[in-house]
Fold:
Amino acid sequence: MNLISKIGHEFSFLRGNLLVLIVSWVLMDLVSTVPYTYFSLYIEGLGGTPAIVGVINFVSFIAMASVQFLGGYLADIYGRRWLIVSMTFGVALSNLIFAFAPSWQFVIFATLIQNLCLIYQPALSAITADSIPTKKRGIGFSTIMLISNIASLASPPIAGILFLHYGFLEGTRIGFLIVTAFFLAAAVLRLRLKETLKKAESRERKFKDLLKSYPHAVKESLVVWKFLPRSMFFLFITNTIGSFAYILINPYMVLYATDILKVGGFQWAILLTWFTAVMVLTALPAGKLVDKYGRTKCLLISWLLYLPFPLLFINGNIQLLYLSFLLWGISNALFTPAYSAMEADLVPRELRGKEVGCSQFVIYIFMALGGLLGGFLYEHFSPSMPFLMSFSLASICLIIQILFIREPEKRYQ
Structure:
């Protein structure tokens, strides 16, 4: 078998729904972080403070959390496709509110609308897992990550150019308009998706009673955990703590870099491009490692690589910043396919929407609190405090990974 044939065989699963999703993600990832490269500075330009940035993050994740149970329930009962398509249009159009916001209060409103539309996330996770063959999950999820990260390489330079020509305020507004156009194109493309849930019920019969389904959706999603193995529970715990640790620092990195470390605005865009490039270069090797050596070993290495990041960042000159983003990029490249593959291994197809909905509900609640706490600590105690707390929480995740998470004996299709 020649090289081209081998490559064709290795990636033969990239067709149908998965191909539609990947192309739509490329459209979205090309521009999705353009307005968020300097988002915290944008909020300050609209009259906000670091604490207000925390409030906006709090609203964002509370809104996402509020729809996860219902989103997972609807995905497993009425199907994945209709939810993904309709809400992608909603997310796209909500960017117009961001673009024309006259004050940070309008940004809060836009954040609320946009993140309520992310009710489709459990359906998106479920249809992706449904569409990747069991033995290809490591390379499958890492390929998605690779293509997504290659596309997103464009965002920071575009943001940097807009910053140089228009400043962070007008440049960010233009960024949101660009995002609107590309997201609408992705929504139109997703009309080509095919339903993967064979026993999906007719949604017309009960759609008018959607809100009445919420209590039942919560109950059904919680009951799911009775049927899942112990490792899935602890995997979920590490993801929850890790997400809390991440959001403690993510909105404030640009503020710390520009205000404390005196990194230039365009240099910050280059750093983010470097971070994404690292993930691009390591994505496929990471996926192969996940399939060859197992999910748990790769998750362990991921946590070990992330640990130095917060400490290097707050004490960094420009060289240490590049080193810190190198370690974080490799960590991300390993964590994403390893976690996604193991989650798919441990959760039956008919329960995936509810499991993802329940997991993301809890994770988003913790991220809401983390964003709020991070802003409070940054503004009222010390700018370095959120980073030190992030390091401590990542250490806890490492211990849980070592003690409680094991490879599954049976992998679900």
Observations:
- The CA atoms of residues 286 and 334 lie 5 Å apart.
